[in-house]
What we know:
alpha/beta; Rossmann fold; globular
Amino acid sequence: MNKVALVTGGSLRIGKAIINELHQKGWRIVVHYRNSQKPAEQLVKRLNNNRAKSAISVGADLSSHEGIDYLIQATTDAFKRLDLLVNNASSFYPTPAGKITIKDWNELVGSNLMAPIFLIDGLKKHLEKSKGNIINITDANLNRVFSNHSVYIAAKAGLSKITQTYAKDLAPSIRVNAVAPGAILPPPNKEWTKQIENKIAAAIPLKKIGKVSDIVSAVMFLLESEYITGQTITVDGGRTLNG
C-alpha cells in the first residue's frame, strides 16, 4: 500500500514543492490549507489526474483546537494510515515591541508551535503503526537576532526544541527531524527586487539565494536516512556562519 503524507500549508511555495516530490515517488497526499482553497484544489486535481484517488485537500485553521482536531480526523479518515507529517504551515509577520496583541500571539504561536504539537499528539498512534516520520520546517534565523519578530521567533524556537524532545520521546518507532530554511523565498505577498536579492546574497558565504528544491532535497534526505533523528539541517548557504 502506498505511503501517506500530511503536509500542512501544502498548497503553495515550499509545501507544494514537497508534495510534488512525494507524489512523484508514489506517495498519497493530504494537502492542508487555511486560506488558499483554490490553489489547494487545483493541486489535488492535478495530482489525482496523474494518479487517481491519490490526494485530498483539507481546509483548517491551525490556530484553533477545532481546526487541528478536524485536520486530524480528516487525515485519518481519508487513507486509514499515515507515514509522514510535515509541519510546514506558518504565519509570519512582524510584532514590534509594545504593539503585540493576543491575536498575534494566537495566530503565530498557533500555526508555528501549537498545531505541530497537537498534530503530533493526535497522529502519534498512526505514525507509530507505520514507523513513520515527522519533519518540522523551522527557520535558519533562529541562529541570529531577527528584529521585530519576537513572537514568531519564540514559536519557531519552540518548534526547533520540540524536534529534539519528540525525537527522544517517540523513538524508536517514529523519527523526528527538522529543516531550517534561510533565504529561499520572499515573505508571502511580497517580492524581492534584484537590488534586495543582491543585498541578501552579499551576506551569504555562497553568495546566492537558495532554491525551493534545496529544501525539498533536505526533506527527502531526512526521510530516507533511517539512522537520523532529532537533527536540524540548516539550508542557508552558510548565512549563519556570519553571525
